[in-house]
Design a protein that fits this description.
alpha/beta; Rossmann fold; 2 domains; two-stranded antiparallel ribbon
Length: 344
């Protein structure tokens, strides 16, 4: 496993005390063109400030273009077939390593922990954030920490530094749980189990664990919420390679299997819960309009799900079979405008 942060992070940075126990697997990507610490391994981008050192935000910025120019070199630092965890925060530039590597890294498992800019920050940051997370299809897992919802519940009498300190502590305390979950996505859940978590996954805050996007509802059990742990349950070490080849190398799928996997692979959505609720409501309306006895339990998920899962598919299949028993001329289809309802 490797953990990547940048020198520009507000939460995840070289001074974050929660990262010290992971120093052997942590890389600081120095976007400002100079090494910032001797505590951690650094990858220095060739960025050179121009003029007063002001820079845009996003993929048109000088900092991103400089990192993109050496993306293959950064990729070579990550070895083969390891879990690569990108820790990003409300500063959009912390997403640059993920965006620079997502299309060229074909051998590692990519995992992203992200949050949006604070709502009162400049619009350019929000625009850049949306651009940098516009494609999540390369991820094996995604955790979306909604910092603005945390801000809504924070003591209004305290300042921004207090709030950022709270977020740092909150995420720092969650980090072992996050890393344990990521490790077990690609490894057996337990020594007596041969079931693996189906990828890709999202972190569900209702059950405090990673959940398969495909399984969705079926994987969530809020009656057995995973408690936070302060310790990792796997060894923190780099994966061994010999002349660039794994000692225990991966088996690669044939081309047909790869294409099938990419086509059927679900993708996390920030508005996944909204999509889920709208589609569920539409199924209920369809059943009621056709006098079909139909029950649907609301999904308890709190996280960036795919908006649909195997439970949704089962319900859709049930309604499809029920409708086929009704003469075509008597079927009723409630109006549904996907563009206005879901924003598609």
């Amino acid at each position: 496993m490797r953990i990547l942060i940048t020198d520009t992070g507000m939460i995840w940075n070289k001074d974050n005390p929660f990262l010290e126990k992971y120093k052997d697997i942590l890389i600081v990507v120095c976007l400002d063109g100079k090494k910032v610490t001797d505590k951690y391994e650094c990858f220095v981008s060739p960025y050179k400030p121009v003029g007063l050192g002001m820079d845009n935000v996003g993929i048109e910025s000088g900092r991103f273009k400089a990192l993109a120019s050496v993306a293959k070199k950064l990729n070579s630092h990550l070895r083969y077939y390891e879990d690569i965890v990108f820790l990003a925060d409300n500063e959009p530039s912390t997403l640059y390593p993920y965006y620079a590597l997502k299309d060229i890294n074909g051998y590692n498992h990519l995992h992203l922990v992200a949050m949006p800019p604070l709502r009162f920050e400049v619009n350019a940051k929000t625009t850049a954030f949306k651009e940098l997370v516009s494609d999540l299809s390369h991820l094996d897992s995604f955790l979306f920490y909604d910092i603005n919802k945390k801000l809504d519940k924070f003591d209004k009498g305290k300042g921004l530094d207090d709030f950022l300190g709270f977020v740092t502590d909150d995420l720092g305390n969650m980090l072992p749980c996050i890393l344990n979950g990521i490790y077990h996505i690609n490894n057996y859940v337990s020594s007596d189990s041969h079931e693996k978590i189906k990828k890709p996954c999202f972190f569900d805050f209702a059950s405090m664990k990673y959940v398969s996007l495909k399984n969705g509802f079926d994987d969530i059990d809020i009656s057995n919420v995973q408690k936070l742990t302060t310790e990792l349950d796997f060894p923190v070490q780099l994966q061994l390679t010999t002349l660039g080849v794994l000692v225990d190398g991966p088996s690669f799928p044939n081309n047909d299997e790869y294409v099938k996997d990419r086509v059927e692979r679900p993708v996390a959505r920030f508005d996944g819960k909204k999509v889920c609720n709208i589609l569920r409501d539409q199924r209920l309306k369809l059943a009621a309009a056709n006098n079909i006895h139909f029950e649907s339990e609301e999904c308890p998920s709190v996280g960036p799900c795919a908006g649909t899962c195997e439970k949704c598919d089962r319900e859709a299949d049930f309604l499809r079979e029920a409708l086929e028993k009704i003469p075509r001329e008597k079927r009723v289809y409630p109006e549904f405008d996907a563009e206005s309802e879901v924003g598609l």
